[in-house]
Amino acid sequence: MNLRPRRREDPEINLTPLIDVVFLMLIFFMVSTTFLRESDLQVSLPEASTEVTAEENAPVELTINRQGSFFINGEALVNSRPETLRRALEDAIGAREAASVRVVVRADAESAHRLVVRALDAAGQVGLRRVGIATIPVEE
């Protein structure tokens, strides 16, 4: 009979299964991830195929005609300077809170892009945040 106390072996932690699981997860995420190529993006003009539903508060209509004249709710502005446009927008929103007022920019297709940017800039300076650009539906 062997009366000597047995020496216990120290427990080992086998890391092989853990490493295998980590590598499988890494492969899964690499395969399922979508990589975008930012350089392949092309800019094209938007088309609108849906209509916007009407809300309770009537929006402020800012119209730009082909000659570059501005109109707010059908009334012509004296000139197309940014200060005049900003004051006219402030008058159009009146006592309403600027953040809740909708503005619809109706620019002629042949009007200069700088005029649309000027209108959007003036709306931002007044505090208008709900700005949309009117389009015509695409005929299929």
From TrEMBL:
Q: Does the keyword Transmembrane apply?
A: yes
**Subcellular localization, per the record?**
Cell membrane
A GO BP annotation: protein transport
InterPro entries named in the record: ExbD
Q: Which GO terms describe its cellular component?
A: plasma membrane
- What are the entry keywords? Cell membrane, Membrane, Protein transport, Transmembrane, Transmembrane helix, Transport
**Hey, which family's this protein in?**
Belongs to the ExbD/TolR family.
This chain belongs to the protein called Biopolymer transporter ExbD
